[in-house]
Amino acid sequence: MVLPDVTPWLALSEHTDSPYVDFDRAAWSRLSASTPLPLTAADVENLRGLGDPIDLAEVDTGYRPLSRLLALYVGASQRLRAATSTFLGERTHRTPFVIGVAGSVAVGKSTVARVLREMLRRWPETPRVELVTTDGFLYPNAELARRGLLERKGFPESYDRRALLAFISDIKGGAPAVAAPVYDHLTYDIIPDRNIVVRSPEVLIVEGLNVLAPARLTPEGDASLAVSDFFDFSIYIDAATSDIRQWYVDRFLDLRQTAFARPTSYFHRYASLDDDEARERALQIWASINEPNLLENILPTRGRATLVLTKDADHRLSRVRLRKI
């Protein structure tokens, strides 16, 4: 498999006239020296995902500065919207500030999204913060099987892109209530006739593998819209592919005692595997599905993000790259 060429992006960011600002861990942490930390150790324990060792110290170092930066962006966006409405002679109406969070399977993006949601909720300017994952916009398993896509679940073509675009368009249009489908990770499928309803939040976080994918051409050759066209800020969670692969395998092994152990789980057949068998099966799934999706579809969108958070092998934040305004 050919790796995507990200050299131009990396070289650009290191240039003195780069459109990016780079921070190492220590420099990034210092940005929030006067900012209160709104979460407790118990909060973080409840928010972290399986296999993600994030703790309060890591939230303090990495995500306290980010939550403050996002609050500044939200405030500036609200002021700009009010000024624009005055200029246009329109009645001001609230349009949610939309944040996209992208990254590979097992990189920890779900934990990051949940932590940011709870931190932003503690800021007085953004008490209403909602989180939606694009898993709910996957086609149901029956439809994926009909299309021959069940083994490509998570690839761009496995999502109901039209429904996702309609959802995010309604959100940015200021609709008072917008429904999104619900995905069940236990049954590995969409839950029929069940929705979550997003009701006029100040901030909406949209988390998913391919949320930064560019627009595709229509069959007629016309340019179409991309989900990311509706984002006000976007975050890519980055790490070495070898580290993500290890995190995926570790999580797979742990799931044998949790979700896989439930009889109703789609992956219940893996619960009885011993360590060697489970590791071999996890590596097979990674090599056939998750790694190709990462290298072909997800990683190439990294340069489209407003901010890139890079993790080391121990999941600790090591570097932050922010696109200049």
Q: Radius of gyration, rounded?
A: 20 Å
CATH-level-4 superfamily name: P-loop containing nucleotide triphosphate hydrolases
Helix content: 25-40%
Number of strands: 9
- How many domain modules? 1
Highlighted features:
globular; seven-stranded mixed beta sheet; 9 helices; alpha/beta; Rossmann fold; 325 residues
Task: Offer a quick outline of the entry.
With 325 residues, the protein is an alpha/beta fold.
Structural description of this entry:
The chain is an alpha/beta fold. It has one domain (7-323): Rossmann fold, CATH 3.40.50.300. Helix content is 38%, strand content 18%. The chain contains nine helices and nine strands. The strands form two sheets. A seven-stranded mixed sheet has the order 1-9-8-7-2-6-3, sandwiched between helices. Strands 4-5 form a two-stranded antiparallel sheet. Strand 4 and strand 5 form a beta hairpin. The longest helix is centred in the first third of the chain and has 33 residues, at 56-88. The radius of gyration is 20 Å and the shape is globular. The chain starts with 6 loop residues before the first helix and ends with a strand. The model is unreliable at 1-14 (pLDDT under 50).
